Amino acid sequence: MKGVHKPLITMEHTITKILVANRGEIALRVMRTAREMGIKTVAIYSEADRRAPHVMFADEAVCIGPAPSAQSYLKGDKIISISIALGVDAIHPGYGFLSENAIFARNVEAAGMIFIGPRPQAIEIMGDKLSAKAAVENFDVPLVPGTEGEVKDVDEALELAHAIGFPVMIKASAGGGGKGMRIVHNPEEFASQMQRAVSEATNSFGNGAVFVEKYIQNPRHIEIQILADEYGHVVHLFERECSIQRRHQKVIEEAPSVVLTPELREAMGAAAVSVAKACNYRGAGTVEFIFEPGGKFYFLEMNTRLQVEHPVTEQITGKDLVKEQINIAQGKTLSFTQEELSIQGHSIEVRVYAEDAVANFMPGTGILKEYRRPQGLGVRVDDGMEQGMEVSIYYDPMIAKLITFAPTRPEAIARMKRAISEYRISGVQTTLDFAEYVMNHDAFVSGNFDTHFVQNYFTPESLIPENEALEAIGAAALASMLQENKASQKTVINEKPSRWKANRG
What was the pLDDT predicted at 485? Predict the structure, then answer.
């Protein structure tokens, strides 16, 4: 193809069988692409997932152990042994579990199989925020003002914080998910917050290293999807807006972002490509940035795996990212150039969690008594659940990813609202009511929001008028009517079932 460089040395390997070292929707997502490519798949499952859709879909399936992740999906050595026994060519880790475990990736390669992901060294570099910052500092990638390395002494750290300027963020070097992070607004609370950050980081990641950087007060979270092959070719597939979060974790994503100009998009894309080149990256990865009002952006971290929110990128580019991952793992060169990529339409993803937004997004468990997916033009549901299955205490409470696609953002929002209204889930409380609240909120519709959306706009009472309040009014009206007309008591029947009742039942 014109514009695509051919490798000087052929390094291609044919993959005929993939073991997916994961569960749920991402396992099923990978297997579907593999089947389209004529590649056989092997599922692993815990005792709790024996009848899960990904198990039924795979060509072969093996029970890996009891329900707890530490006894099943995190048993790297056992997964490798099963793969060898079944003649597997490659292992796809999905996201979570072992996807960013450099030791596992290295052991897969040592066993003579292909790890469908980056090189172990790249995982190690980007898995630690301090080493990641050090790797990119010579590649003209903008960084948040902060300490150059780990800080241990509280007094020294406080002095540095004064130099940076309050408020500051104390941040764990390892891990993610908002753990080991503390915002400090004044010097008086610095020592106690640093102690808490170190303790949480140690308990969560086994690594208590922390650093201090400037706290960006009204940021947006924007990330860039990249792909890189074995031969040094790197492209970016534009951005994803991931600013709707709770507890520093994403709940709604969209592509493209409403705030990026073509110039900013090009600049952020180029920075993301530089980050990938800084660690000799291979495969699919995501470079995350903090974006502040006025157009400044700073490198945050790199996720060395497929992201949960990758479908919105697939929708606006028409590229199957799992297929690209597999082709890169087979040693193929990228089949397209940066110039051949363009944004088509708009896509939104809602993560459907078994959480109660009214109760501070408290995770829940239970049996899916009713489970009916929305359908129609521009609606995609990535899930790994079926009616009658249990949302287990052992795993992440995400039930599904609901994705819409349309020519414009307003149409994508309208389509998402329609899809949410069609979704029927009972037996567990879900975040669908919160998602609808966001879709209808002026700040989201206008695009004028940041990572503090939940904190600034959402209250538990925001969801009550659609259920409890209306039910209370209806009950009061019915009681009054019955009181006035005892002779001919009539029952008022609401023939249209409440979605909230269904979702929160």
Answer: 53
Q: Which residues of 387-415 are buried (b: 16+ CB within 10 A; e: fewer)?
A: eebebeebbbbbbbbbbbbbeebeebbeb
DSSP-assigned beta bridge partners for residue 380: 403
305 a catalytic residue: yes
Q: Give me the CATH number covering residue 186.
A: 3.30.1490.20
Q: Which long-range contacts (CB under 8 A, 24 or more apart) does 466-475 make?
A: 466/433, 466/500, 467/498, 467/500, 467/501, 467/504
The separation between the first and the last C-alpha atoms of the chain, rounded to the nearest angstrom, is 55
Q: What is the largest CA-CA distance in the chain?
A: 93
Which H or E element spans position 66? none
Question: Domain holding 82: CATH number?
Answer: 3.40.50.20
Using alpha carbons, list the distances in angstroms from residue 419 to 6, 28, 379, 466: 44, 21, 7, 18
Nearest residue to 289 (alpha-carbon basis) of 278, 274, 301: 301
In whole angstroms, what is the distance from residue 28 CA to residue 452 CA? Answer: 33
Q: Which of 23, 220, 265, 305 is catalytic?
A: 305
For residue 411, give both structure tokens. 């149409």
In the numeric block, which tokens belong to residue 174? 């390892």
Q: Span 45-62, mean pLDDT?
A: 98
235 with 99, same domain?
A: no
What's the rounded Cα separation, in Å, for the pair 144 and 471? 49
Residue 489 has pLDDT above 70, yes or no: no
Q: How many CB atoms lie within 10 A of CB 186?
A: 8
Tokens 């994803």 sit on residue: 240
Is residue 367 within 8 A of residue 425, CB to CB? The reply is: no
User: Can you tell me the distance from the alpha carbon of 394 to that of 67, in angstroms, rounded to the nearest whole number?
Assistant: 7
Instruction: Give the pair of three-digit tokens for residue 128.
Output: 């630690």
Q: Which of 224, 241, 225, 247 is nearest to 353 (CA)?
A: 247
Structure token pair of residue 83: 């793969």
The yes-or-no verdict on residue 499 having pLDDT over 50 is no
**Tens digit of each residue's pLDDT (9 = 90 or more) over 130-157:** 899 999 998 989 999 998 889 889 999 9
Confidence check: pLDDT of 5 > 80:
no
Residues 252 and 195 in one domain: no
101 CB-side CA count, 13 A: 21
> Is the C-alpha dihedral spanning 275, 277, 278, 279 positive or negative?
positive
